[in-house]
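Q&A log
Question type: sequence-to-structure
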Amino acid sequence: MNSEMKPSQPNNYPKTKSRNSGQNWFQGILLLAPAGIWLLLLLVLPTLIIIQLSFVPGIKPGDIVNPTGFENYLRIFDSLYLQVIKRSLLLALATTAICLVVGFPVAFWIARMTPKHWRNLLLLSFILPLWTSSLLRSYAWITILRPTGLLNTTLAYFNLPTLNLLNTTSGVLIGMSYSLLPYMVLILYASLEKLDKRLLEAASDLGANSIQVFWKVTVPQVLPGIYAASMLVFITGLGDYVNPELLGGASSMTAARLIYNQFLGAAQNWGFGSALSTVLILLVSLAIAFLIKFGDAKPER
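Response status: OK
Response body:
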């Protein structure tokens, strides 16, 4: 009797396994459904609509959507608009460089040179500005940088020459760097806190000075964090609208401001604005692809 029952037992296992895997797959779909629907409605569909509008030249609110060609994209190659895109890229790159140069020493000091019981408080001091609106932070910088503001009043008190920073590119860089510096510090801190002290001690024992230890041991270990922080600051800076609008004036037209003018300004050219938005999305996607490729790179040893 046992020999007759044995062949029938293995046949039950594939069915049970298949049933369990199908049930797990269905449960996974249920868990992802809310976020998936949210992304579909608020990200994927609007992006597809923008791409469709980008092929309609001169479309305005109420017009019939009838894609006809690449006229809007060809218009971007006008020297005026190329200059705007170039300015946006340079501002984002300069902001990233400033945040990296300023943020790395700060993150290193907090992660490696500060007692542990002070680290959370210091990190909180960098997070606090993020709790306020970016609009309020920009208005605060207007109060500081305007001709009769706090900065020039202080300089005049010490008989120093005043500075004209409001409505200039320098003012935009100050505002953008201040807004994005916390992101740089937090990500670099997370990488620096995980430094392998044994490698630092080994390099010192082998006769390396502090500069050699920094460039050949510290930087390679935190390189993925540098990539991640730099890309985050660059992407956010590339799409920043508030700081260039409030601190830059008419001379600091950026891609984000130009897109706003096409949709909500006097121009009202949704097709061209959509083409600019598509190009901006493409640039951000390339930056993200760069981050995915190099952000997880392991340091060479």
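Response note: The CA atoms of residues 54 and 271 lie 5 Å apart.
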